[in-house]
Amino acid sequence: MLRPYTILLLIFLPFCLFAQNPPDKPDAKLTQKLTDALRGFKGNAGVYVLNLKTGKTASINADTLFPTASTVKIPIMIGLFDKIRQGNISYGQEVVYKDSLHYDDGIVGSLKDGAKLPLSEVVMLMETVSDNTGSLWCQALAGGGTAINAWLDANGFSQTRVNSRTPGRQPFQKQYGWGQTTPRELASLLHYIRQGRAVSPDASDRMYRNLCRQYWDGDGLSQLPAEVKVACKNGAVNQSRSEVALVHAPHGDYVYCVMTKNQQDQSWTRDNEGFALLRTVSALLWQHFEPKSTFKPVAGYEKWW
Q1: Which own/partner pairs from 207-210 qualify as long-range (CB within 8 Å, at least 24 positions apart)?
Q2: Which burial class, exposed, middle or buried, applies to 190 when counting CB atoms under 10 A from its CB (0-12, 13-18, 19+)?
Q3: What domain range includes position 170?
Q4: Domain check: are 72 and 115 in the same one?
Q5: Angle at Cα 108 formed by Cα 170 and Cα 304, nearest 5°?
Q6: In sequence order, which ranges of the chain are alpha helices (DSSP H)?
Q7: Shared-domain flag, residues 43 and 72
Q8: pLDDT of the chain, 305 residues: tens digit per residue
């Protein structure tokens, strides 16, 4: 015999899942444009787009798993803020860098042993310049990948996982690297933060502000007017380039995610096929949602990267 709370769970669970993952309202015209843009890409690519004003979507391989690369730093930040919510640490507290934390020679990895700085600055470096040593430090302070993955699972993000330095995730790390996700789920996670649903409304607001400060703005962001506010995180490893963004466009906000894997082109120049795809999709979406915009990317921008 089912207990009362079990019956209630069975009744309301479908509604909860619907709220988290509403059914698609496909935008056929946009989907065709994206299909054309991805045609001929030498590797695997996936895209998910949601117009937050109309609810219309476009998806290509949107539920396929891809390496997160540095976009994993969004769930790491969420896990850290959840730890802060629990009272274990505070956002403004002073933390002490140790040489044992060193991963690479980014800003945090170049600090001297014993250097002190606010945790908030480490988080800023993780999201803004994508500092790897700082990110692994934040992952550890969040309780590690296991704790972060538990939050993701509890909040309905079943495909997004931290793999690196996470017990039991070694086979997945070998295949996907630091983390794994899908274009739909990563875009939904960014939207979740924007809605104020990640950890708490105030934590979501702080995280969203962090994501609106992006140093690496030479790809998708370069195809948008400088005055348009965008929350964004990108990532890149040899065979994969990714970007997730929520664009505050004049005629309605939209969120999208582009991810690649198994790229033949593993170069690290601006004309890499994956980087070029990020710019192509960003420009395509802007032109689709803002057809009367006269904005054109500044010529010669590539000289600055």
Answers
A1: 207/77, 207/78, 207/81, 210/77, 210/123, 210/124, 210/127, 210/128
A2: buried
A3: 68-179
A4: yes
A5: 100
A6: 4-20, 28-38, 73-85, 119-128, 132-141, 144-154, 170-176, 183-194, 201-211, 273-289
A7: no
A8: 455 444 444 444 444 444 455 678 999 999 999 999 999 999 999 999 999 999 999 999 999 999 999 999 999 999 999 999 999 899 999 999 999 999 999 999 999 999 999 999 999 999 999 999 999 999 999 999 999 999 999 999 999 999 999 999 999 999 999 999 999 999 999 999 999 999 999 999 999 999 999 999 999 999 999 999 999 999 999 999 999 999 999 999 999 999 999 999 999 999 999 999 999 999 999 999 999 999 999 877 777 76
Instruction: Tally the domains of the chain.
Output: 2
Q: Are 209 and 194 a contacting pair, CB within 8 Å?
A: no
> Is the CB of residue 281 less than 8 Å from the CB of residue 39?
no
Amino acid at 298: V
Given a contact cutoff of 8 angstroms between Cβ atoms, the answer to whether 99 and 206 are in contact is no
Please name the residue that has the structure tokens 């505070």.
90
Q: How far is CA 13 from the centre of its chain?
A: 26
Residue 57 shares a structural domain with residue 116: no
| Cβ 187 vs Cβ 50: under 8 Å | yes
